[in-house]
Write a structure and sequence with these properties.
Layout lengths: L4 E5 L2 E5 L13 H8 L6 H10 L2 E6 L5 H11 L8 E6 L2 H15 L7 E5 L2 E3 L7 E5 H10 L6 E6 L7 H16 L4 E6 L4 H7 L21 E5 L6 E5 L7 H15 L4 E5 L3 H17 L1 H4 L2 E6 L5 H8 L7 E6 L2 H4 L6 E6 L2 E6 L20 H14 L15 E6 L2 H9 L7 E5 L3 H7 L14 H9 L16 H13 L13 H7 L4 H13 L2 H12 L11 H9 L7 H14 L4 H6 L4 H20 L11 H7 L3 H13 L3 E4 L8 E3 L5 E4 L12 E9 L3 E8 L2 H7 L1 H7 L7
Parallel strand pairs: 2-10, 3-9, 3-10, 4-7, 4-8, 5-7, 8-9, 11-18, 12-14, 12-15, 13-14, 15-18, 17-22, 21-23
Antiparallel strand pairs: 1-2, 5-6, 16-17, 19-20, 19-22, 20-21, 22-23
Helix pairs in contact: 3-4, 5-6, 8-9, 16-17, 18-19, 19-20, 19-26, 20-22, 20-24, 27-28
This protein binds adenosine-5'-diphosphate and magnesium ion (MG).
Length: 739
């Protein structure tokens, strides 16, 4: 057994001095040797000792030290997965769940979905009778609590990547703390790359009297233990640009080419922000290969973002072929969630895409300002200035847009920049090329990121907590409290959707049904309304398309061809109806990959749409709701005296009425303003209504780069808004008149 130095300081137990080598009876295959070389291996006994004796163990260790892939295996080897119990490990990101689960299955020599399985939304690769190690997103684990509030099948729950502070991770930590009081035998491990271990630990200090039902001899220590795993990381030389770069995408491409020209062998990892700019960079680099064989021959350029097919993920992790240099262009998923072997050079754009939400009340419409803003005006101005001078072309990051959540390209924090650089020092000393100035890094880059909780729309969070019986959401035990104004906003939206009643309780049946559907509440509401309108068959297809990232393949640099192809499917009503045409075409083609290729459609995404749609139709049947088609079912048509395309749009509006916008009267450049807060927005170039610019539209989501763009847009008649949500529109826009 380990010799541990217990140093009780302010109620926190620190552990130092790891025990020497472990005595587990491993064989010596190459994978097992790799496992034993990981830094975490030296701590195997210490970890097992702590987990046995402490209700909560916090493990801090550098990325790549083996926390995610090894600890669940150690727990299983030590018997935590016997007697029908399961070891769970949560991740904030779906792609990370799939990737680490396959790695662990490979290390254990089992088929994925058997002893080692994973569950992400709409994809369950587990077998309840044999799965003993289960990887899942933190969101899925919260959903599991609806059926099993105490998560009784799990013996140990490892909440991984806690430093990311995703909204679901924060919720999960609060919920687990509650469960722990009722289940003293449950063990929690919180692990992360960097963490404020002490504040986590204080949060998890259970009071002895809370551990009610435990027999005296099995009470684990109520003090959380903290273990720090020392990794060996090599030094990384940091290079900055001398002047701010005007376009980080071009700069990233040039930097990769120049590394390839000047630096010795070693793979390159590039951090950009999302599918759009990653696909663009991949294309530029691959084109360059064709233009100039000498410079880029030998470059193997691969993208890495969520939504990538299994095969493409496999390529990223496969060893680099001899004589080649791999260039992986990634979102911040490769910052700490995934480790790529062989990386020696990192190119850091300094940006990532983040959710951003500013719940500022709308002043013009009589709601007034509801108290404290998250940041002062001055700070915001300062940040705006910085972003502007720093990179004019690709940055927004100013968070000025209010009451609407959007995905924003945002400057990263120093903590992230350090993590990114660290990825270059895994196998030998490496180099990190930062596409920003040293002065910017030292003086202007924020030290830490803002937890997602503080920059998200809380609608989904509120509804889930309500469904779990937590009514006083502000009084919930949060690791850090969410902004009260965001909470109030969420309650208002849910009330206007008819999901909460006047006492802020879930309505029956709508509220409870919405909570059962694992989608954004606006989409769920749209589906439920479609059941009343008699068009649920069509609407679940639309919901399925909206829930995959994008069904189109990258149109970067090929707008004209893309526009032409889209014309085959385009519906004057907008994108949602266009998706119905695409889906029909896909089915008619016999779900052909060739057909997708010809039509600029992502085959994997289309297969996923079919799969998600199937699951939604099963879910509706389980909820006892009718599946009807407004095209086929003439009864609905006659009943409503309306054409099917109008019925469909009304069902969409029943969920998305709050996202309405009107075209500015004298606008020649397609400027719209949102009805609820008069924000300036434009139709995204990927929309079929781009350049069509109907007078009134409703959108599904916003993305922001240098402007705010609406994605997935339909044209509407404004009278439908008042019809769908009279209370909402009377308050916000009393003069809203039909055109
Ligand atoms: P941590 O969670 O501490 O960041 P991991 O357990 O994810 O570390 O990774 C440990 C090791 O396993 C790393 O060296 C990494 O390269 C390797 N590894 C993880 N996932 C994969 C994968 N899908 N394919 C190949 N190697 C992997
Ligand atoms: Mg990990």
């Amino acid at each position: 057994r380990a010799t541990l130095v217990d140093d009780e300081e302010g109620g926190v137990l620190f552990v130092s001095a790891p025990p020497s080598s472990s005595s587990s009876g491993f064989g010596h295959s190459s994978l097992e040797r790799q496992r034993q070389r990981l830094p975490v291996f030296k701590y195997r006994d210490a970890i097992l000792y702590l987990v046995e004796n402490h209700a909560t163990t916090i493990i801090v260790g550098e990325t790549g030290s083996g926390k995610t892939t090894q600890i669940p295996q150690y727990l299983k080897e030590a018997g935590w997965a016997e007697g029908g119990r399961v070891v769970a490990c949560t991740q904030p990101r779906r792609l990370a769940v799939q990737s680490v689960a396959s790695r662990v299955a490979e290390e254990m020599g089992v088929k994925i979905g058997e002893e080692v399985g994973y569950t992400i939304r709409f994809e369950d690769q587990t077998n309840p009778s044999v799965t003993v190690i289960k990887f899942l997103t933190d969101g899925v684990l919260i959903r599991e609590m609806m059926d099993d509030p105490l998560l009784t099948k799990y013996s140990v729950i490892m909440v991984d990547e806690a430093h990311e502070r995703s909204l679901s991770t924060d919720m999960l930590l609060g919920l687990l703390k509650k469960i722990q009081r009722r289940r003293p035998e449950l063990r929690i491990i919180i692990s992360s790359a960097t963490i404020e271990a002490k504040s986590m630990s204080t949060f998890f200090q259970a009071r002895k009297k809370d551990l009610l039902h435990a027999a005296e001899d099995c009470v684990p220590s109520h003090l959380p233990a903290i273990l720090s795993v020392e990794g060996k990381g090599y030094t990384v030389e940091i290079h900055y640009v001398e002047e701010p770069v005007p376009d980080y995408l071009q700069a990233a491409v040039h930097t990769v080419l120049s590394i390839n020209d000047k630096e010795p062998a070693g793979d390159i990892l590039v951090f950009l922000t999302g599918q759009d700019d990653i696909d663009a960079a991949v294309k530029l680099l691959r084109e360059d290969t064709q233009d100039d064989r000498r410079r880029t021959s030998g470059l193997l350029v691969l993208p890495l973002y969520s939504g990538l097919s299994r095969d493409d993920q496999g390529l990223v992790f496969a060893p680099t072929p001899k004589g080649k240099r791999k260039v992986v262009i990634s979102t911040n998923i490769a910052e700490t969630s995934l480790t790529l072997e062989g990386v020696v050079y990192v190119v850091d754009s300094g940006f990532s895409k983040q959710r951003f939400y500013n719940p500022m009340a709308i002043e013009e419409d009589g709601f007034g300002e509801r108290g404290g803003r998250r940041r002062g005006k001055e700070e915001e101005k300062e940040e705006k200035r910085r972003n502007h001078t720093y990179s004019q072309q690709h940055t927004m990051g100013d968070g000025e847009i209010s009451d609407i959540e959007s995905l924003v390209v945002t400057p990263i924090s120093k903590a992230s920049a350090r993590q990114r650089a660290g990825r270059a020092g895994r196998i030998r000393p490496g180099k990190c090329f930062r596409l920003y100035t040293e002065e910017y890094f030292l003086k202007e880059m924020p030290t830490e990121g803002i937890p997602e909780m503080q920059r998200s729309n809380l609608v989904s969070c509120v509804i889930q907590l309500k469904a779990l019986g937590i009514d006083n959401i502000l009084g919930f035990d949060w690791l850090a409290s969410p902004p009260p104004e965001a909470m109030v906003r969420a309650l208002e939206v849910l009330y206007s959707l008819g999901i909460l009643d006047e006492d802020a309780k879930l309505t029956s049946p709508i509220g409870y049904q919405v909570a059962e559907i694992p989608l954004d509440p606006m989409i769920s509401k749209m589906i439920l309304s479609a059941c009343n309108f008699g068009c649920s068959e069509e609407i679940i297809t639309i919901a399925a398309v909206l829930s995959v990232q994008s069904i189109w393949v990258s149109m970067w640099g090929a707008q004209k061809e893309f526009d032409e192809v889209k014309l085959h499917f385009a519906a004057a009503e907008g994108d949602h109806i266009t998706y119905l045409n695409v889906y029909k075409g896909f089915l008619n083609s016999g779900k052909s990959s060739q057909w997708c290729y010809k039509n600029y459609l992502n085959y994997q995404a289309m297969k996923k749409v079919v799969d998600v749609r199937d699951q939604l139709s099963r879910l509706l049947r389980r909820l006892g709701l009718a599946l009807k088609s407004c095209e086929k079912d003439t009864q609905a048509f006659i009943l409503l005296f309306t054409c099917p395309l109008t019925i469909l749009r009304k069902a969409i509006i029943a969920g998305f009425f709050a996202n309405s916008c009107h075209l500015e009267e004298y606008s020649h450049n397609g400027l719209y303003k949102t009805v609820r807060s008069s924000e300036e927005v434009y139709i995204h170039p990927s929309s079929v209504l781009f350049r069509v610019n109907p007078k009134w539209v409703v959108y599904h989501s916003l993305v922001s780069t240098n402007k705010h763009y609406m994605r997935n847009v339909i044209a509407i008649d404004p009278s439908w808004l008042i019809e769908a949500a009279p209370h909402f529109y009377q308050l916000r826009a009393p003069n809203l008149a039909p055109c």
